Description:
The longest helix has 53 residues, at 147-199. 48% of the residues lie in helices and 24% in strands. α6 (147-199) packs antiparallel against α7. By secondary structure, it is an alpha+beta fold. It is built from 11 helices and 14 strands.
Amino acid sequence: MKGFSKRVTQMISKLPAEQVVQLVDSLSAENETLYSILESLNTGLLICDEEWKLMQVNKAAERYVPLKVRSSEYRYGENSEYVWKIVEDDDVADFIKMCSERQKCNISEEFTLSTQSGAARIISVSIQLLVQKKEYAGIIIKIDDVTEKRNQEVLLRRMESLASLTNLAASVAHEIKNPLGSISIHIQLIQKALEKARKTDGLLPDTGFTDKHIAIVNEEIERLNQIIVDFLFAVRPVSATLELVDVNEELRSFAAFVQPELERKNISFEVHLEERPPRILLDTKLFKQVLINLAQNAIAAMEDGGKLLVTSKISGDRFLVAVADTGCGMDADTVARVFEPYFTTKAKGTGLGLTMVYKIIKEFSGDIDVKSFPGEGTIFTISLPIPQKEKLLLE
């Protein structure tokens, strides 16, 4: 269509009137088709010129964002309005105006609007460049209704939480059965001794006998209490205060903290960090807790010494932090269950350390991956989202 229009423009003066009429009709039909496509899109579009004055708007945009004028009544020309003056919602209008004043594009923001029925709708507003012939020709404001997507994400998180809680409850039930069984056995032994005394000479059992069994009962009660404390710790929501921080600074601080312990354990330590790291949304206290937990696991895996390596780097729109050791490693079955509550390979482990690591990283909207092979070591890789960059418009 583009090449056809250019050729017609070059030769229109040489064409007879009948062919000119046919060409105009053809172009009109083609234009009508493109207009119909624009109006049929589920994505709302506000198309502006270089000065951010509205040129065209489709029906989807009118559905998602209330406008002060109807698209059928609006005409682009000398009296054109700046697009933010036409948008009724103040928050959306202020966002668009801010992007215009600061000359920003490739930036998006989500807003919650109320429909006429009173229901809440979540929309995503994105600012993009309109480019013609490789030059800046205006702005495209893209509007998408993401309500269903966000609702599905909330539902999915609830289902994941429920499934996790179900597994956790099953683990707790299993943990509680052992001390309860032990308590029951030792109480039965005391009861039998008392019953025998009543039937014979009436003398109470030896003090050492009762003290031994009562001490075991008290130990098991304390164990039950610790199980409940750990359970509450595992199910309690993570309270994170997120702020933009330099992750490399946190890694350097962590390195200084853990260095003395590594030296005592005959473990060499290396840190290789990204030269120009982006600022990442984190809770510094919780992030330090994650690093310390991973370091403790690495130390436990290197009883005879070894090497711990901490690295950071940018990979696309993610910032990666890796903690690698040369310890005993884990088999595939252990790797698959390493983040499960109450799963541990340590004699005195609670099985909740890596569960909390997983919860914290998820609270940062990140991911954590583990790779390990028996006898070769383990690598935990934390993947954190890099906040969307705001790009200046072409001058």
